[in-house]
Amino acid sequence: MKIKTFIDQFFAFTQKEFFHILRDRKTLLVLIVLPITQLLIFGFALNSNLTEMPTAVLDLSNDPLSRQVVAELDASTTFHVIGRVNSMEEVDELFKAGKLSQAFVFMPGFEKSIKQTGTGNMQVIMDASLGINSSTLESHILVILLKFQQRMNADREIPIQIIPEVKMRYNPELSSAFHFVPGVIGIVLMLVCSMMASLAIVKEKESGTMEVLLVSPIRPPVIILAKLVPYLIVGMFNIVIILLISVFILKVPIAGNIILLFFIGTIFTLSSLALGIMVSVLTKTQRSAIIVSIAGLMLPAIVMSGFIFPLDVLSPAMRVVVHCMPVTLFISAARNIMIKGLGMVAVYRELIWMAVITVVLIVISIKCFKNRLS
Description:
alpha/beta, abc type-2 transporter like fold, 2 domains, 5-stranded mixed sheet
């Protein structure tokens, strides 16, 4: 083959491929919109700086110096004092409700101890179930206290020292498995179930068997629900396997009620299947369904569900959006049950929202399927 012939064929075929891509709007959409979407997510939605972390103060000393320390911590951009409490029981309730990242505790005689010995102790209680934050928050506290001490010591002959006694709640050893395993359970269940279900109906379209269903007396709700049941059973089996691996191999104990955890996992599996069925109804080819599942479900689930990045690093607007994602709700509920040992009172909101989202997705799928019948 002559070089000129090779070059002509090469450029002609390359030109044909360019025209093919430009004509295929779905491929063009993926090539252009997906990178832009991911850039916007990482650039604007995520913020690696920890700001306005919700904090409670239990000041049993209530002297001028303890109030100064609290004001110094609250003035920083890292911490936001949401309220003062009067007992450890109130601190426990706020932690269980998921309203706190940490609490500052000053025991009686804080200022008196500093005047007599030059040192004063304060307790910092952190929610270590989000272990990705704990060490960073501790560093911020030490820096703020150091600057405060330097400013105070400039006017004192005897330097003072404030020693924070840090206590990690729910995960005292800061094991990364405690943080990641509930998230992994949610991500794995969502990906497996939604991607399997996303091919359920579109596969019928491509194989030609959809015509048989269209002329049969079977109603759309029966088809949609019948498609869900086998995958739901497989998903429930996956939940059992995943929980066994988590406890006996990864050594992550289940502190709460395992039946409640399994029940919430089942509702989450059903919501993931409903999401996959909706994708299957709205797409025409298996390739399109897979692209939508990966780009529209997998990437947001990994990045914005609290699996890798804590929800506190998201912008306030994005935080509202991600709480409409079933995987975000499940990961939050799973951590409350597995790590914190909480019960139905702590997770009923997530359970209700997942059930509502599941019903809405199934109704949308049935309505869209009816439209295609017409």
